[in-house]
Each structure stands twice: as C-alpha cells, then as structure tokens.
C-alpha cells in the first residue's frame, strides 16, 4: 500500500470490542489479570498500553521498519537510545546537531564516562578517520537545524556497517513522508513527534523506528526501565495527526518552496537555505534522498540583527516562536532563541550569526504567507 493509505490506516483498525472507527484511548494505568501471573496481554501501562501500541505500529509502518517505540518527548527517545551505550564508549555526532542532543551528550552522558566528538559528516573520509576503537554509534540529523545541511545517509550507513557501528538518524525535520532513514541503511530513525508527525503544536512526544530484532528488544527494555513513556491521550493525538501527515507535508513543502524562491529573487536575503532550491549545494543529494523539500528554511537578511529583529516583529501571520512542524507558520531567530545556549563563538563558527532567521512554514494559503514575508521585509529594510 502507498503512503497516504498507510498514514490513514496504520494502527487505526476499528476497535475489536465495539467496532469504534476512532481508536479508543485506554487511560488505565493497570489491567486486571485472570489469575496470578495470567495477564490478558497488558499489565501496567509503562510496560505496554493498547493506545501506545497503535501509535508504535503506525510509526514502524510509516518508516518502513519492523518496530516502533513511543516516548514522552523527542529527548526522551534520544536519552533511551544513548542509554544503549556503556562507560568508555564513544559517539560521533554530526556538526549542527539539535542543541538539546548536544547538551545531553555534553552535560549528562559525559559524566557517565561516555565520550563524543563532533564531525563534519558531509565528507566520508573525515567521518571514517574520526572513528575510534571505542566508537559505537554515529548520530546524524538531516536536514540539519538551522542551516539545512543534507547528509548522505546511504553512504554514511555503509561506513557504519563496515565498522559495526549503530547509525541513528534524527528524521524530525523531514518526517517519514519525505525521508525514511531505515530504507537508506540506518539502524534507528528518530522523531520528535512534537513536530511534523503530530503536526498541531499541542503535545510533546518522541518515537523510534527500528528493524533489527535484538536492537528492538534492548530499546524496549530501556523504554520500560527508564520510563520516558507518553500518556495514552498524547498517543491518540499523535495518531490523529498522522492521518493527515501526507497532506500537510505536501502543503508545507509547496509553501516553503515558494517562499524560498521569493526570498532568493528578492535581493533582500544574502543567503537562502532550502535543500530543494536549485542553487542549494545539497540539491542533487536532497532530490535523491528526500521526496520533497519539507517545511523548514533559513535565510540571512541584509542589514544584520536590526533588520532581523524588525522583520520578526513585523510578521502578521507567522508567529514569533520556537519549535516547528505545526500547521501554523512560525518564525524565529536561532542566535537569540533556539541556539542561544551555544557560546557565541561556537554559534558563529557554525554560521549561526545575527542575520539568520529560521521559518517553519505552515499550511496556510501560500499567497497570504508570501504577502506576509514581503511586507515584513519591507518594514525591516525601509
Ligand atoms: C531535530 C530535533 N530533534 C529532537 C528534538 C527534541 O524533541 P522534544 O522537544 O520533543 O524533546 C527537537 C526539538 O526541537 C528537534 O528539533
């Protein structure tokens, strides 16, 4: 079956007991047993819950994996994956990784004796040379936040396989509609379902998809042992969002492409970062690896911080806010908002300077969004 049909139906079979077409939400924390040690399939909702299982089946299906696992946040999912590691193990993390992932390795797992280093994963040789004797995992994001760097997941998966390393790919920016890391050879595909997968900016959640049975067993053990599980109600909301993922991603991508092209031709942006722009250095790779460009783009505005702040404060439809992936358009200043926890020199070395603006383009009418961006550019640069 094709994606749209799976998005509507995966994990969404009518309820066996009642025929209800919308899945029931099993809020129970515990389940009656027929005798001592004779549960009917569920015992306690941290270990397993019927609503969460529906979501986990849907995530596995959409990512082309055998198993899905749901978490209370994207970082809960990342923490669980990182807990596969032991003292002395080393992780290679791509440059430009989400700040919360960096903070987790840098401030939390490093104190448990797990080391990590950042690497420019655009270059296979650089990546291969960075592998150490104790390296156990490569951690990627593609496209990256906020500069929309696209990494060659298939080639990196080959390197990971040759060196017996796990490859985890944070697929949050693309969504399972646009990119499927497991099909490109990754061991784990990860989502902050807070973003596109749920799509309505009304919950915090995370998910993993895997195909390897042993890896699934280990992660399932950790999911229960560490306890970062989502509430059944949030699982229901994510499932509800998934039903329209394909429709939303098509519109997000159409709108973002139109805005990226307008910004590029406006003469008011010194750089525009969107992987499906013909001028992007990642255009060919993105076209191979992703089915659409997605809803995220960044650009550098002429006029530095003053113009950037005026632009952001002049927007009427785009909301000035962190986060991304909801139906409503959002705009933010990475240097002073999402990436402000990075030291200034580090930020600037990465290219996150004061003229950089990030847009999460929603699913509103494209003409309204174009008009909004144009009028804010006029206000910023007048
Ligand atoms: C790419 C990416 N991965 C992971 C996360 C963390 O997800 P959550 O906020 O759901 O914990 C975020 C949050 O912004 C993100 O942007």
Q: Span from first to last CA?
A: 52 Å
Which architecture of the largest domain would the CATH scheme give at its second level? 3-Layer(aba) Sandwich
Portion in helices:
25-40%
Secondary structural class? alpha/beta
CATH fold label of the largest domain: Aspartate Aminotransferase, domain 2
- Specify the overall morphology: globular
Return the string of H and E elements: HHEHEHEHEHEEEHHHEHEHEEHEH
Radius of gyration: 21 Å
Low-confidence stretches: none
Q: What is the count of DSSP helices, taking H or I runs of 4+ residues?
A: 13
According to DSSP, the number of beta strands is: 12
Biggest sheet descriptor = 7 strands, mixed
CATH class assignment of the largest domain: Alpha Beta
- Overall domain count: 2
Strand content: 15-25%
Cofactors and ligands: pyridoxal-5'-phosphate
CATH-level-4 superfamily name of the largest domain: Type I PLP-dependent aspartate aminotransferase-like (Major domain)
- Output mean pLDDT: 97
Jot down its keywords:
single chain, 382 residues, alpha/beta, Aspartate Aminotransferase, domain 2, Aspartate Aminotransferase, domain 1, 2 domains, 7-stranded mixed beta sheet, 5-stranded mixed beta sheet, 12 strands, 15% strand, globular, binds pyridoxal-5'-phosphate
């Amino acid at each position: 079956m094709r994606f749209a049909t799976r998005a509507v139906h995966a994990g969404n079979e009518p309820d066996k007991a009642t025929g209800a077409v919308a899945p029931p939400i099993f809020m129970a924390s515990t389940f009656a047993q027929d005798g001592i040690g004779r549960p009917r399939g569920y015992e306690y909702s941290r270990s397993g819950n019927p609503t969460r299982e529906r979501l986990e089946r849907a995530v596995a299906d959409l990512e082309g994996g055998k198993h899905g696992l749901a978490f209370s946040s994207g970082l809960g999912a990342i923490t669980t994956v990182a807990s596969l590691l032991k003292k002395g193990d080393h992780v290679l993390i791509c440059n430009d990784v989400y700040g919360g992932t960096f903070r987790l390795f840098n401030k939390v797992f490093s104190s448990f004796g797990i080391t990590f280093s950042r690497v420019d994963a655009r270059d296979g040789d650089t990546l291969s040379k960075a592998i150490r004797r104790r390296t156990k995992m490569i951690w990627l994001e593609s496209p990256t936040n906020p500069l929309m760097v696209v990494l060659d997941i298939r080639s990196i998966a080959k390197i990971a396989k040759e060196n017996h390393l796990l490859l985890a790919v944070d697929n949050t920016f693309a969504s399972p509609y646009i990119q499927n890391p497991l099909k490109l050879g990754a061991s784990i595909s990860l989502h902050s379902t807070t973003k596109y997968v749920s799509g309505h900016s009304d919950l915090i959640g995370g998910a993993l998809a895997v195909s390897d049975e042993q890896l699934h067993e280990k992660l399932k053990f950790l999911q229960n042992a560490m306890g970062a599980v989502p509430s059944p109600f949030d699982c229901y909301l994510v499932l509800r969002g998934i039903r329209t993922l394909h429709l939303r991603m098509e519109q997000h991508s159409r709108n973002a492409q139109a805005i990226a092209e307008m910004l590029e031709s406006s003469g008011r942006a010194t750089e525009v970062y969107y992987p499906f722009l013909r001028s992007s250095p990642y255009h060919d790779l993105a076209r191979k690896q992703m089915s659409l460009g997605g809803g995220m783009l960044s650009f550098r505005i002429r006029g530095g911080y003053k113009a950037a702040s005026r632009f952001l404060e002049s927007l009427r439809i785009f909301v000035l806010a962190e986060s991304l992936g909801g139906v409503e358009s959002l705009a933010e200043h990475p240097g002073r908002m999402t990436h402000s926890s990075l030291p200034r020199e580090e930020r600037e070395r990465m290219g996150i300077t004061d003229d950089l603006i990030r847009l999460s383009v929603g699913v509103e009418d494209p003409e309204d969004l174009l008009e909004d961006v144009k009028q804010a550019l006029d206000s910023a640069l007048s």
